[in-house]
Description:
Elements lengths: L36 H17 L14 E6 L5 H12 L3 E6 L11 H10 L4 E6 L4 H5 L6 E7 L5 H15 L6 E5 L6 H12 L3 E5 L9 H7 L5 E4 L2 H5 L4 E4 L15 H8 L3 H4 L7 E2 L13 H4 L6 H19 L6
Parallel strand pairs: 1-2, 1-3, 3-4, 5-6, 5-8, 6-7, 8-9
Amino acid sequence: MKTIEPNSSIATPETFPPPSMAVWQHNHILDLDDFTREEIELVLETADAMAEVLTREVKRVPTLRGKTVVTLFHEPSTRTRASFELAAKNLSADTVSLDASKSSIVKGESLIDSLRTIQALGADIIVMRHSQSGAPYLAIKHVNCSLINAGDGWHAHPSQALLDLYTIRRHLGTLTNLKTTIIGDIMHSRVARSNIWGMTTMGAKVVLCAPPTLIPRGLDSFIANCQLPNVSIETDIEPALENADVVMPLRLQMERQQSGLLPSLREYIQLYQLTTERLSLAKPQVLVMHPGPINEGIEISPEVAHGAQSVIEEQVTNGVAIRMALLYLIAGGKNK
Ligand code: CP
């Protein structure tokens, strides 16, 4: 599959100029609803420079030497946690990895006390995943260090959306006017929510396709109130896929679902699985994406998941460059 290579003239992280504070306004990264187009562009350009580092034999630059990055995960993760930790190590930060299920939280320590303890140990940046939507917004009221939301409940997953934007831009060159179709468990998807902000800010159209029971109540009035004319809702998969540039099926989040949201898994597969036949309704150069983890044979057929249009593994790879860019920018864009 064709890939647009990063601009070879771009500066490397050793020489990358500090981001202009007129462009970059974030001490924390909580969601993309407060990101401007210029800020997203800055993240994507910085990720290009980080991607160059990842092509080297020694994938390490001294950019964050002396800084401490702590990951605190209250929910399982493979991609996000590993890629933030690799990103921090590639930038020469000291890293500490905390699994909440093996921390003093199980002895009754509160989230706030845990965060204060991590700060007292010298953390400069905390990367946190939490099952409660909004937990990062509470957290930043109680710590002075920077915080990156690595996924909070159903609410937001900004670094995932940024790596999705980065992957699309590398293949298709731009987001402007692309039709991006997100299919499946919209109700429980923090990835869909952050992508709505990221994709529309970058000029794409977003079609959200799901059975009525998996569409959040009030989504249509939310779209109207937030003046998001480029976001639409569709309950039939065929029109949602027609002429799509990007298709992103989502995993059914059974762990978050109340019973009764789906009449049967078999019916869901029949009506909403992304199959080769259905994918043929999209544009010939369509990108098939998935935030992972995948349940092959449910939301996506194995042929499509591993087919020529799939960039799913590349999304994972790009996650490291994006998270290096975020750590670099949140640390103030200073070169060592
Ligand atoms: N996409 C994503 O958040 O994957 P993990 O749960 O494995 O981090």
